[in-house]
Amino acid sequence: MISKVFCLTVNWLESEIIEVEVDINAGLPNFTIVWLPDQWVQESKERLRSALKSSEFKLPTTRITVNLAPADIKKSWVVFDLPIAIWILNNAWDIKDNNYLKNSIFIWELSLDWGVRAITWVLPSVIWAMQKWYKNIFIPYDNYYEASVIEWINIIAVENLADLVDFLNWEKTLENPPKLSLENLVNIKNDKYDFKYIIGQVQARRALEIAAAWLHNIIMSGPPWSWKTLLAKTFSTILPKLTLDEIIEISKIYSVSGLLTKDNPLIISRPFRTIHHTASSISIIGWWRNAKPGEISLAHKWVLFLDEVLEFPKQVLEVLRQPLEDWTISVNRVNSSYIYPAKFVLLWAMNPCPCWYLTDPDKECICSSDTIKRYRSKLSGPMIDRIDIMIEVPKVKTEDFSSKKDYSNIEDSKTIASRVEKARIIQLNRFSGLNITSNSQMTTSQINKFCELDEVWEKMMKQALNTMNLSARAYFRILKLSRTIADLEASENIKAQHIAESLSYRKVEE
After folding, report:
1. Mean pLDDT throughout 175-182?
2. d(CA 125, CA 8)
3. Contacts of 168 (CB under 8 A, 6+ apart)
4. CA atoms of 137 and 424, how far apart (whole Å)
5. In b/e form, how buried is each residue of 242-254, taking b as 16+ CB within 10 angstroms?
6. Residue 335: predicted pLDDT
7. Which helix (H) or strand (E) holds 1?
8. How much is the pTM?
9. Gap between the Cα atoms of 201 and 370, Å rounded
10. pLDDT greater than 70 at residue 404
C-alpha cells in the first residue's frame, strides 16, 4: 500500500506540497474529500467516476475518504485527480513501483475518457519541485515544452492514465517529445514594425531609445496623424533580448495566467501589453480571488502601453502609482495576500485636448482653457512625477512623403537596438552584485555614487529645477535619466549635454 502520494497546491507563483491519503473501508458507498478542498477539488469525485468508468478499472463501491494534508492550507487547482486515482487503483491493482512514487510530484487534470488535459501553473510547479529536490514530476503531455527548459529534475509527460499505470508496473516506457530549442524561438523576427519605416519624428525616436535603455517611463502628446501609436508599437523592436532567466521569469507569470500553449510554450520576446480605456482597476493590478495577475504583471520586463490615456478614469490611472515606485503590486485581503511583480516601462500616448487639435498646425482647436485644464487634470502631480520623459510629437504632413525622397539614411530598429544593448551591458556591469539591473532602479545612495556631478553643474541643475517648479522626486529621476543618456554614449561621467537633454524632456504644456 502506498503511504502517500504527493501533489501541489498553488499560491500565486509559490507552491505548497500536499500529501494525498485515501482510506477505503467497508460501508455504504460514499466519496468524501476533507481538509479545505475548494469547488474545483470537490469536482474531482465526478471526474474520477467517469474516467474510471471509461477504463478497465472501476471505482470501488465502498466508503472512500480522501485526506489532503496539511489541514491549514486551502487546496485549489484541478490537479488532485491523478494522485487520488493512483491511490484508488493501488488499492485494487497493486502498483509495483512504490519507491518511484515516493520521490515524485503528480499534477494532472483527468478528462472523462481518462485522458489528460493541459493545465496552468506547470512551469512554476516544476521549478518548485526541482528546488525541493524531488527526482521526478509527472505532467500532461501538452505541457512538456514549457517545462522542458528546467534542468535537474526528471520531467515525465503522460497522455493518459492507462499509460501511467503501465509505466509504474514496468509494462511500458514513456518517451518525452524533443526538448524545446530556445535558440530557434528567440531568433524569430517580426518585420511588421521597424523604425526605418518612420519618417521624421527625430525627437520621439531619440526619446524611445533612451526609454528602452532601461525602464524609463514616457508620455507622448500630439494631434492625430502624429504616429503616436505606431511609435509605441515600434518601440518593442528596440528592446534588449531576453536572457534565459528572464524568459523563465516571464513565462512563469504567463503559465499562471493560462496564456501558454503547446504552440507557444514560452514567452521569448519582451511583453508589450496594450490596455483599452474601458479596463477596470482589478484587471490592471490583478485579481486576488484566483491569484490571477493583472496587466501590470503581464507587462513585467517591459512595456505597458496606454493609448489615449486621458480617456481612462482617474482612479484607474492612480492605481499605477505604487507599482511604478516599488516595481511590485501588493494585493491584501483578510484571508490571502499576494505580491505580483510589476517591473515595466509605462508608455502613454495622449491627445493635447478633448478635440485633439490644440497643437495641430492645420486645424484650429475649439476647446476652452477650462475644458483643457479639466481634461488634463486626470494626470495628477504624483503621477507626472513618476514619468521620466515627456515629449510633444508633431503631426506628420503629407508632403513629407515622396517617392523621390531618399529614405535610406533612416536608422532601422536593429541599429538602435544595438546601442540599447550596449547601454544595458554597461548598467549590468555597473550594478553587478547590487540586486538591481538598471539606472531607473537606483536608490538615493546609489544615485549619489553613480550620478556624481561637479559643483557647477549641480548648482545649475538645481536652479533649473526651481525655475521649472519640479519636485525632489523629479530631481532624482532627471539624474537617473542623465546617467542613461551618458551610457548610450558610453560616457563614464555625466556631462552638461546629458543634463540639458534630460531637462528638455520634463517640459509639460501649461
Report:
1. 79
2. 8
3. 86, 95, 96, 97, 100, 101
4. 37
5. beeebbbbbbbbb
6. 65
7. none
8. 0.86
9. 30
10. no
If we measure between CA atoms, which residue out of 98, 129, 118, 89 comes closest to residue 7?
A: 129
C-alpha 442/C-alpha 355 separation (Å) is: 39
For residue 384, count CB atoms less than 10 angstroms from its CB and return exposed for 0-12, middle for 13-18, buried for 19 or more: middle
C-alpha closest to that of 78 among 56, 58, 51: 51
Q: Is 31 helix (H, G, I), strand (E, B) or coil?
A: strand
Cα 268 to Cα 247: distance, rounded to the nearest angstrom: 6
Contact 491, 498 (CB under 8 A): yes
Tell me the one-letter amino acid at 236: S
- pLDDT at 304 (0 to 100): 95
Contact (Cβ atoms closer than 8 angstroms) between residue 388 and residue 216: yes
* Element of type H or E holding 175: none
Q: Specify the pairing of strand 116-117 against strand 109-110.
A: antiparallel
- Are β-strands 389-392 and 218-221 bridged in parallel, bridged antiparallel, or unpaired? parallel
- Helix, strand, coil percentages, rounded to 5, for the chain: 40, 20, 40
**Which phi-psi region, left, alpha or beta, contains residue 356 (left: φ > 0; alpha: ψ -120 to 50)?**
left
Domains in the chain and their CATH numbers?
5-168 (3.30.230.10), 195-397+407-438 (3.40.50.300)
Task: Give the CA distances from residue 432 to residues 55, 83, 110, 300, 425, in Å, rounded to whole numbers and listed in that order.
Answer: 57, 44, 46, 21, 10
Give the pLDDT confidence of 106-116 residue by residue, as tens digits.
888 888 777 88
Give the pLDDT confidence of 241-263 residue by residue, as tens digits: 888 889 999 999 999 888 988 88
C-alpha cell at 182: 530556445
* β-bridge mates for residue 75, sequence order: 37
Cα gap 187→197, rounded to integer Å: 21
Grid cell 528602452 in the structure block, residue: 212
